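lol so apparently i was supposed to do this last week
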Amino acid sequence: MHELGVLIHVVEQVSEVAAENQVESIAKLVLQVGELCSMIPKYMEKVYPAAIEGTILEGSELEIERIVAQGKCRQCGHVFGLIEAKGACPSCSDRQFDILQGREFIIKEIVCQ
Ligand SMILES: [Zn+2]
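anyway here it is w/ zinc ion bound
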């Protein structure tokens, strides 16, 4: 489980931005996490209180927006959900595709109090 290490890094980045902008407390942190990203939202929520303890984010809420993994078939150009289709094009069954989205790990929003 590497969620804690990644979150601690995120908290450091957010703390820097907050300090630069003279923000004194943060109400909510919004992260966008792609389905293909190895971070598991359930674990992230679980370790979040430990990651924010003693930082400017202490007491804040974590919101995770899941981004659906989408691929575009190289054979027929069909765009489909990779997880749902288990990596094969539902239109022509080909397994060659380009990933359009789903690998994101983005700090989307920092909500100040
Ligand atoms: Zn196809």
